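Workshop exercise sheet. Pairs work together: one partner reads the sequence aloud, the other fills in the structure field after running the prediction. Swap roles for the next sheet.
Pair: D.N. / O.F.
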Amino acid sequence: MAGEGMFTDIPVEIGVVFEGERIRKQSMHAELGGPSVSEKFELLEVVPSGDITDGTVHLIGPDLADMEPGTVTPFAIHIRAAGASLEGDMESVMERRIHDFCNWIEGFMHLNQRNAIWLRADKRSVGKGLSLRHVGIVLARLYKSALPIIDEIEVTLITDPGEVRARYARALGIYEQRDARSRGMTDEDVDVFYGCSLCQSFAPSHVCVITPQRYANCGAIGWLDGRAAARVDPKGPIYEIPKGECLDPIAGEYEGVNLVVREKSLSDISRVQLYTAFGYPHTSCGCFECTTFYVPECDGLGIVNRDFRGSTPTGLTFGTIADSTGGGRQVEGFHGLSYEYMRSPRFLQGSGGWERVVWMPAAVRAQLKEYIPDGLRERIATEEDVTSVEALMDFLRSREHPILSTREQAPAIPESVEQSPGRAVLPAKTGAGQNPGTGVVVTFRNVTIRADRIFVNRKMP
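Structure field:
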């Protein structure tokens, strides 16, 4: 357990052993934030010394014991820290440690970041006396223990919906100010990238590679934040990655990145291409803000965000797609994204960029309208336009989406393979410039399949 004697006044155990603990709905006492709540956030700010009283924990709104079992509520965590060596550039990376430290608490789960947070407290821990004030105390002590440059810290937890709402817009404004700092920088401007292993308790083989033009999947850490984190805590979960030789400037493959990812993933992942959803795509944990999904009928990519509650044209929900995307695996066509990465000029450049995107929720399209190339924005369908793959194909034809001309130029499917609406093209590993839509073709027509195992083996020449 963490810091023997450090948490004797806390009614549950505290330690890294509880990282990765999942609290299912049937065992939860309360859900704080989460996908069904529109307003929730966590924020850490650096403030002048003397502006706060060290170790103070404030709770605005009901505590866990005051909530009925099964309660779902808006929620916010606001931490203010002071120290002679603290700088504003350190806020994002210190804020991201909320994820770690909350998950050290027995029976308390924390997922995601910023305004996408999702926390649960289980019935057993609340029954033992766990309160949100205890959570605040644990956060304050772990922060000062892990980051000695913090001299003073104050933690505020908010469950009052009106107070969360009143502070929400300011938090969003601070996130935008942080993100805007590194826009304009390019990968060629720097000699090192940064790696983040904060989520390996949930996805052991996942390593997030952060460059000036590729934000972390969670959307909380950019290149400048990575630099600050490595400087503050050189042996911590965020570290330098020497770029090494550029092996593929389009897909974004670097010798140094491959070496570090192979080491940090314990050889589970040997190659990573930063700017493509095919070939050797960047891995994902579970904290990504959005994800791509492959649409074989048009060889295109859809994008769905965490807050989208409906079904995509393929019939899959965000949760189902996220299960295919996360866990530190490389699954072609399924690729975790942050909003800030989608604002990058290198966004999916190895997979055709924005011209490969055929569908996204209307809210995401509106949020990124300034970054989608002119003339393409209205050619990308949303849930307001289509609800099925067939309707999507009709929409793409009517709007003359460029994916259709790209698809027509792809090598033809062998005549021996029947083409039907049930066909699924599974993209093969490809190098830069190759069409990833040419691979294994699987046809299903009016069949019911029951199998314990399915093996797909490539026949070598």
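Discussion prompt: The chain has a mean pLDDT of 88. What would you look at next?
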